[in-house]
Design a protein that fits this description.
15% helix; four-stranded mixed sheet; 31% strand; alpha+beta; 10 strands; elongated; Immunoglobulin-like; 162 residues
């Protein structure tokens, strides 16, 4: 084979290899990816692996209005930004992926107020008075078998039979 032809083929091969390396560098194909993990329910992200320096966006749709939620990461070197999204009724989190895996966790607690006196009988000084005109004898609903003491069944709403 001709020496000049071999040099041309070698140059073409080198250019192709350099082009592939350049494309890999530009697209991040040569960089390692790190995992995004969730410890809890309700989290969503478009991807589960990111390159170092890539922006990560995670959403969390709220499931209860009477619950306090605490969100935290398993590392201290990441700044987790949190925004409320009133359209989806949930949170949007964002951060820059570090050079390690990241886990987002949630803990929650019910904050519903419980009134311990809600089911107590009214006292003599209580301003609440009950209308006992609907109250009748105890009867069992022929439709569902519920024990009742009012004019209508507490379970199915059927009127007391005559």
């Amino acid at each position: 084979m001709n020496t000049s032809l071999m040099r041309i083929n070698l140059r073409k091969t080198i250019i192709v290899i350099l082009g592939v390396i350049l494309i890999m560098e530009m697209t991040g194909c040569d960089k390692p990816k790190y995992k995004l993990e969730f410890d809890g329910y309700g989290f969503q992200s478009k991807k589960t692996e990111y390159h170092e320096g890539e922006k990560v966006t995670v959403t969390y749709d709220m499931i209860a209005t009477d619950t306090d939620y605490n969100f935290y990461l398993d590392c201290d070197d990441v700044e987790l930004k949190r925004e409320w999204d009133s359209k989806s009724y949930g949170y949007t989190f964002s951060f820059t992926m570090p050079a390690h895996d990241v886990k987002i966790s949630v803990s929650s607690r019910n904050t519903m107020y419980i009134d311990p006196d809600a089911n107590k009988a009214p006292s003599e000084t209580s301003p609440v008075e009950y209308d006992n005109s609907l109250r009748t004898d105890i009867w069992f609903c022929p439709e569902c078998g519920q024990k009742n003491d009012m004019m209508y069944c507490a379970e199915c709403g059927r009127k007391k039979p005559d």
